[in-house]
Design goal:
The chain has one domain: TonB-dependent receptor, beta-barrel domain (Maltoporin, Chain A). By secondary structure, it is mainly beta. It has a 22-stranded antiparallel β-barrel. Helices cover 6% and strands 47% of the residues. It is globular and about 90 Å long. The chain has 5 helices and 39 strands.
């Protein structure tokens, strides 16, 4: 209808121009037909004839919204639940969502964790979470496709610095937050343009910063360095493009168990009968000990190189891409690649229950007895061809290859002198492949979308060399995709889809060299097969006037063959092993509403109702229990850790451009006031959600899986506000900003419990935090300070801030744009 209206307008204008001749004076204009004004906008919805459910995130949302990373952006979309930095889409586990650039996955091969990307480098994001076409595979939760910015015809420079205040009070909390972002775009000749972007973050976060920072540029609690480079043609989409991504993240996390700062003696009393002791002042026999410096820190580096090209071929387009993605992760005390600190004489010394001179919760001496080093490299390439016809029908096909190479080394010294294996190490490589065909047939108002995807998976030639290894085999899987779309009117399309998706197991679950293990870390299993997801969806896309749109979907997902831990018997020994034993399902309803008002105002609302259940939330199963005590296996379906029933996300962007006065300023005061005027923008996002589930673990341990996640936190609210102002007196080159996170300081619960490993008892053998909350209804965590867990009450509160979401945070920014 809109196209017909535009065609009529063009015809009338052409007819009026044809009546004018050079020989005659133009006659007075005569109104033949007056049409109402039409504002042409980009379609806020994905391809209307597609059966896919796609949520679009544009440049304004990425640059103006008060968000710090890709996780926060996607958490505002329908069907997405964020737990910390883990994203769960339509009930999927962490690692079930694929982040892709030019069709090349940016997830690492060990556990499928995605790579971070500078927000300034992203032009738009497409989140595909339902009814996926056959060209998308390998992720049961969906795919987030990233499109990066292109170079501008003229040089452009954008920079921004953010920081918080140096003071804390009842209104806000200082965290030592500093962030610098920049983007440089320029033509470089030969029709090419280059883009360079960087994002640097240093933050001590809202939890106590106990680690030493001897210099201003020392690592803080959370440190992030992101980089991006792109070389591509300036005009058009055809040609070759080179995109390079790099990141490094150093984390020095807070743990209240490792919080003593003073002088300690690991052994007091006669023959050490009283155990360790602590003093804030130096005493004879006591040594200086800052426990936080002896806890684990992680250093993870990522790199990705994507070379792509596309162009017309016959009636369609041919696209090709090749990628190299690498991850290196190091976890150690001090952050170095040196495991020499794993010395039995430096094992951690905890206090004793019911002691008058120490506390069983704290570490008084020693280093965290753990070391981790891993590397994952993936080489991949793909080629795609698609063609579209005037009728709306289209077809496409493609194929691709991949090659994974992973190395892993992990030492756990808590098993020393117990007979259990303390070293897990492996190196493996394996190829992979896929091919697909996808088509669309349009006939008499009915649209049929169909496709088929073939994938190959193998554990590789090293599968026979592992513990309980077997000869390698290649598993072929076939995934059909079927969708029907029916345009009810020129503005409404109803679609139904059936999708089957397979996801290969992460390489970290496949390989293992250990033979006699504890219950904490299951043994790898080279016989694992891909997880299968079957999805059904009914969706509606509706376009209103002036760019407003509505998108709704009802979905049901069934997942089976998920990775889970199960007891395995080998000879006379029982031990946990990864198996394709877990299953789950998610059903729900999504409703998205886009309401632009003019060119500078936009409001979006995303509502989700979802019910996500399964046998286990974690691949490792229940994380608490004795070293040799088999975990109780789940036989039914229980709410998953991310089972949020209702959520509503609202995002708003308002941009104001003041009008230029039509007369000169009268006096210096009016001139100054005019200079203080300038473009102003306000962006806000808020999310309301019902509480997440948690388990009230009995004090003796979880023996009845029916208790899993039967409790609920109260509802949650999180609002962020961002304001930016560009005074005219700065020549529109300087922007001042204010950003407030958690505007209303709503201190909601994040989790009920956290792992206490390597503590032998607290939050390791027993879930003390969960038991305390279940018995008292109080949050913040506590531990049991008694040998006898049957007495009425021996709780000692911890007030662990990690169990809560961040408080209100205020940040100021200074930016420039040239």
């Amino acid at each position: 209808m809109l196209e017909s209206l535009l065609a009529l307008t063009f015809a009338l204008q052409t007819a009026a121009a044809d009546t004018l001749t050079p020989e005659a004076e133009p006659s007075p204009p005569r109104v033949v037909l007056r049409l109402r004004e039409v504002v042409v906008r980009a379609n806020p919805l994905h391809d209307m004839l597609s059966s896919q459910s796609v949520q679009l995130v544009g440049r304004d949302a990425l640059r103006l919204q008060p968000v710090s990373g890709l996780t926060e952006v996607l958490a505002l979309q329908a069907g997405v639940v964020a737990r910390g930095e883990d994203l769960h889409v339509r009930g999927g586990r962490r690692g079930d969502l694929r982040i892709a650039l030019r069709g090349i996955p940016l997830n690492e091969a060990l556990r499928a964790r995605p790579m971070e990307v500078p927000l300034l480098a992203i032009e738009s994001i497409e989140l595909l979470d339902g009814g996926l076409d056959a060209e998308h595979g390998g992720a049961v939760a969906g795919v987030a496709q990233i499109r990066t910015v292109s170079a501008s015809p003229r040089p452009q420079f954008i920079a921004r610095w953010e920081g918080d205040a140096d003071w804390s009070n009842d209104f806000t909390q200082a965290t030592g937050y500093h962030r610098a972002t920049a983007l440089l775009s320029a033509p470089i000749g030969l029709g090419l343009g280059a883009v360079v972007s960087a994002d640097v973050l240093a933050d001590d976060t809202y939890v106590p910063a106990l680690r030493e920072r001897p210099q201003w540029n020392s690592w803080r609690a959370d440190n992030r360095l992101l980089g991006f480079f792109k070389l591509a043609p300036l005009t058009g989409m055809d040609g070759a493009a080179l995109e390079v991504l790099a990141s490094r993240r150093v984390q020095r996390p807070y743990n209240p168990m490792w919080s003593l700062d003073g002088y300690t003696n690991p052994s007091t009393g006669v023959f050490g009968s009283e155990g360790p002791a602590f003093s804030e002042e130096p005493l004879p026999g006591y040594n200086r000990y800052r426990a936080a410096e002896h806890a684990l820190m992680t250093d993870e580096s990522r790199a990705a190189v994507v070379l792509s090209a596309q162009g017309p071929l016959g009636a369609g387009r041919l696209r090709g891409a090749a990628g190299w993605v690498e991850m290196r992760r190091l976890g150690s005390v001090g952050g170095g690649d040196d495991e020499s600190y794993l010395d039995p004489t430096r094992s951690p010394v905890f206090g004793r229950p019911e002691s008058s001179v120490n506390d069983p919760f704290f570490v008084y001496q020693g280093d965290e007895p753990f070391f981790h080093r891993s590397q994952a490299r993936t080489l991949s390439g793909r080629g795609d061809y698609d063609a579209t016809f005037a009728s709306g029908s289209r077809y496409g096909f493609g194929a691709g290859l991949s090659y994974d190479h992973v190395t892993f080394r992990e030492l756990d010294l808590t098993t020393l002198h117990t007979g259990f294996d303390s070293l897990r190490t492996f190196e493996a490589f394996a190829p992979g492949a896929f091919a697909y065909a996808q088509g669309r047939w349009v006939r008499e108002g009915l649209v049929l979308n169909g496709g088929l995807r073939l994938e190959a998976f193998t554990a590789g030639p090293q599968s026979e060399d592992q513990s309980l290894g077997v000869p390698a085999r290649t598993l072929w899987t076939l995934s059909p995709r079927l969708g029907i779309a029916y345009p009810v009117s020129t503005r409404d399309v109803v679609s139904l889809s059936y999708t089957r998706v397979q996801q290969d197991p992460g390489r970290a679950y496949l390989y293992d060299n250990r033979r006699f293990i504890t219950q904490r870390q299951p043994m790898g299993n080279v016989t694992l097969v891909p997880t299968t997801m079957i999805s059904y969806q009914v969706a509606l896309k509706h376009l209103f006037d002036n760019g407003r749109a509505l998108q709704a979907a009802v979905f049901y997902r069934d997942l089976y063959g998920q990775i889970g831990a199960r007891e395995h018997r080998e000879g006379f020994i029982n031990f946990p092993r990864y198996e394709n034993a877990d299953k789950g399902n998610a059903q729900g309803f999504e409703l998205g509403l886009v309401l632009p008002a003019g060119e500078r105002t936009r409001l979006e609302a995303q509502y989700t109702f979802m019910h996500a259940v399964g046998t286990q939330s974690l691949e490792e199963g229940i994380p608490y229990g004795g070293r040799q005590t088999p975990r109780t296996e789940s036989l039914g379906d229980y709410p998953l850790d991310w089972d949020v029933r209702h959520s509503l996300a609202l995002t708003a962007i308002w941009q104001h451009e003041p009008k230029t006065p039509d007369r000169p300023a009268r006096g210096p005061i009016e001139l100054l006031l005019r200079g203080l005027r300038g473009p102003f923008s306000a962006a806000m996002n808020t999310r309301f959600a019902t509480g997440m589930p948690w388990t009230a673990t009995p004090r003796a341990g979880l023996s009845d899986p029916a208790l899993t996640n039967q409790e609920r936190f109260s509802w949650q609210e999180q609002t962020s506000l961002g304001l930016r102002w560009t005074p005219l007196l700065t020549g529109r080159r300087l922007t001042l900003g204010l950003e407030i996170r958690n505007l209303f300081d709503f201190r909601s619960d994040r989790v009920a419990t956290l792992s206490g490993y390597p503590h032998p008892l607290i939050n390791t053998t027993y879930d003390d935090y969960g038991s305390f909350r279940g018995e008292t209804g109080l949050g913040g965590g506590a531990y049991w300070d008694a040998d006898d867990r049957g007495i009425p009450d021996a709780w000692v509160r911890v007030h662990d801030p990690r169990l809560l979401n961040a408080p209100r945070l205020i940040r100021f920014s200074l930016g420039t744009d040239w």
